[in-house]
C-alpha cells in the first residue's frame, strides 16, 4: 500500500504558498487554542495546573439541563434525523421569537430568526453579508474573534480601545465619528473576555447614534451601517448587573441590528451546536441562503429539543438559578482571593470570566530576565503558580498592559482555592 506522505513535495511550505490564496495564507490560528495545547501538555507531565483558559464548561460540574438532554434523546427516538430546513425548523424559530418577546421585550416573528450550528456560523455569515473587500469593520478591543473574521473578509479594521475605567465598554462619544466610516459595527455584552456588561443607558446612547448616522446615509443614498449585537452570555449576569437589548431601548435601530445568540453559554450546551441570528426578514433570507450553501445548520434532534425547552419557562428558570449560582461562587472565590493579594481586577458582572491585571513587569521571569511582556507574565504564572490564563492579545489588544482573562467554566471551587494559594506563594 503506498504511503501518501511520500508523494508530498519536500518543500511543503513553498508548495502551500503557491497553492493557497493570499487570504488563506494570511489566516491566523486561534491564540487561545494554541495556549490550551501547551497547558494540556504541561498537565500531562504531572504539574498541578488550574486551567482558566477554557471558554467552555466541564460537563461534570455544569451538566446541561435534564429537559434538554431528554429532549434530544426523545427526538432521536422519534426519528428526527433528516436534514432540517436551512433556516431552522419552524418550531425553534417560533420559540426563539416568543422567548425574546417574553424575556427581552423585543417584538419579532419567526421570519426574523435563522438557526445554525452554534453562534459562529451566523456571526461569520453576518460578516459575509455586509462586508466586502475594503469595507470598514469597527469593533472595540479587547473583544473576541473580530480580528480573525475581519481578516477573512478582507475588511479594513478600525478599533476602539476601551479601558477598565469604563468596564472595557465603549461610549457613544467614542463611536460617533468612526460610525461615519464604518460598514459593520460589532459589540458583545456580557463580554468575552472581560466578563463585563454595557450599562443600558450607555447602550441606548449608542443605539441612538447608530440611528442618527443611518438617517444621514439614507438621505444621501448611501449604504447603511449595520450592527452585530452578540449577546450569547445574556442570561449569565451577577449582582445588580442588568442586560438590555438595543432594540428594546431604541426600537428605531431594529432595521440595522443583527442579534447573535445560542444555547451554548446560556445552558452550558456548547457541544449541542444550536445558535441563531435575529435580523430583519429581508436580510434573514440572504443569511438562510448562506447557511444552506455551507451546510452549517444545527442538527435536527437538538433543534427539536431546544424548541421544546425554550417554551418551558419553569425549567429554564430553575436551571438558570442553579447555573448562575455555581458560576458566581467560583467567580467570588477569584474575586476575594485576588483582593486579598492586592491584585487589580474587575468585579464579575456577567458571563464566566474575570478580568485581572498582573502587574509583574520588572520581576524575574522564568528565563531569569525581568518580565516586560504579557507573554512572559503568562509563562511565569503557568510555570511558577500553575495557573493558565489568556492575555488580552488573544482579543486584539496588542499592548502589553498586564491584563488577562480568567475563565471558571471548567474548574472546581477547590481547584481555584488551591491555585490562589500557589499564586500567593509564588508572589512572595
Summarize the structure.
The chain has 428 residues and is an alpha/beta fold.
Shape: globular
Q: For the record, what CATH class of the largest domain applies?
A: Alpha Beta
Sheet/helix structural class: alpha/beta
Tally of separate helices? 16
In N-to-C order, the SSE pattern is: HHHEHHEHEHEHEHEHEHEHHHEEHEEEH
- Under the CATH scheme, the architecture of the largest domain is 3-Layer(aba) Sandwich
Number of domains: 2
Helix content: 40-55%
Instruction: State the CATH topology of the largest domain.
Output: Aspartate Aminotransferase, domain 2
- Amino-to-carboxy terminus distance: 60 Å
| Share of residues in strands | 5-15%
Radius of gyration: 22 Å
CATH homologous superfamily assignment of the largest domain:
Type I PLP-dependent aspartate aminotransferase-like (Major domain)
**Strand order of the biggest β-sheet:** 2-8-7-6-5-3-4
Unreliable residue stretches: none
**What is the typical, i.e. mean, pLDDT?**
95
Q: Profile the largest sheet.
A: 7 strands, mixed
The beta-strand count equals 13
